[in-house]
Amino acid sequence: MMGTLRDLQYALQEKIEELRQRDALIDELELELDQKDELIQKLQNELDKYRSVIRPATQQVQSRSELQEHQRTKRQAISAEPANVQQLSHVTLPNVPKSAKSKELIKSAILDNDFMKNLEMSQIQEIVDCMHPVDYDRNSCIIKEGDVGSLVYVMEEGKVEVSKEGLKLCTMGPGKVFGELAILYNCTRTATVRSRRNYRCQMKV
């Protein structure tokens, strides 16, 4: 009888320990799930920010396509080249001397950019060759939201802050392209870019 009671007590302790471990595992999984939910929400917020920048450019392109129906097929085929590409094809671009390091930085930045990486390598090389350096002091406004854009930039040194309607979207460091949407889609600037440190970039007309 005593042996049976001890066996029951031992079995009960085992069950209690098993339940404790199971509860601990559930707590751990719930914490992990909460962390993943938080990460998903953070990524969703970042995606919404970038969509708020890209959407106006897309809307402006669609509006122009409706007004200029005969250009739409061509724009789709060349995938993000300027609307006046025929004029540009007859222009001789200057070759601006620069170090091998600067050339590699510009090329890598373009290939890392979702909107420019599909350009022909010959086009990318032309952009690399004709870009020239420009310096900005801290807190300089490099691009202003709503302005007509005619320049694209590749960051070489420093840091910039990107904002839309007064709200900060992100910061960017060396090796990043910006200003490309207004050039590729022939629209106004979709965001404001300010230098947060003394800044040097490569610029292309």
From TrEMBL:
It comes from the Eukaryota. SUPFAM superfamilies: cAMP-binding domain-like. Coiled coil: none annotated. One of its GO terms (cellular component) is cAMP-dependent protein kinase complex. Residues 115-201 form the Cyclic nucleotide-binding domain. Gene3D superfamilies: 1.20.5.170, Jelly Rolls (2.60.120.10). GO terms for molecular function: cAMP binding; cAMP-dependent protein kinase inhibitor activity; protein kinase A catalytic subunit binding. Residues 59-79 are annotated as: Disordered. Keywords: cAMP, cAMP-binding, Nucleotide-binding. The keyword Nucleotide-binding applies. PANTHER family: CAMP-DEPENDENT PROTEIN KINASE REGULATORY CHAIN, CAMP-DEPENDENT PROTEIN KINASE TYPE I REGULATORY SUBUNIT-RELATED. Belongs to the cAMP-dependent kinase regulatory chain family. This is Cyclic nucleotide-binding domain-containing protein. It comes from Cyprinus carpio (Common carp). The gene is prkg1a.
